[in-house]
What does this fold into?
Amino acid sequence: MRKIKILFVCHGNICRSPMAEFVFKDMVKKKGLAGSFFIASAATSTEELGNPVHVGTRAVLGKLGISTEGKYAVQVKREDYRNYDYIIGMDSANIRNMNRIFGDDKDNKIWKMLEFAGMSRDVDDPWYTGKFEKTYEDILAGCKGLLEYIMNHDKDRL
It folds into this structure.
């Protein structure tokens, strides 16, 4: 069976999107579903390419026993649209940039993270706010909602 492929996207791929990537990986592992998923993250910009996950993200996830070891920022590519089932941006600017990179979202693959938590607002960038715990709370809510959505709409692939 083909894995469900999820790409989390933010501006630099060092704070929010890797946080979502590793939170979701941990979540599906704990539910015994890790084999059903391929989960990654990427940036819309080139500013942080090759850099490791931000120390603030590593600190928040480290307290939970979640490692980001080996993750370095990469940029989203046009072909990612074809390769992923769910492409999840952290904020409205990410969504605009993804639409510019991918072109038309004809397959309705692009979502904003907090849509899965029943909210329309953005996940604030802790690079600017310094509020990594708040970002984690938003991402956790979004990841829980995403998993619930998949279990209801894509359960035949689990």
Notes: Residues 85 and 107 are 9 Å apart (CA to CA). The mean pLDDT is 97.
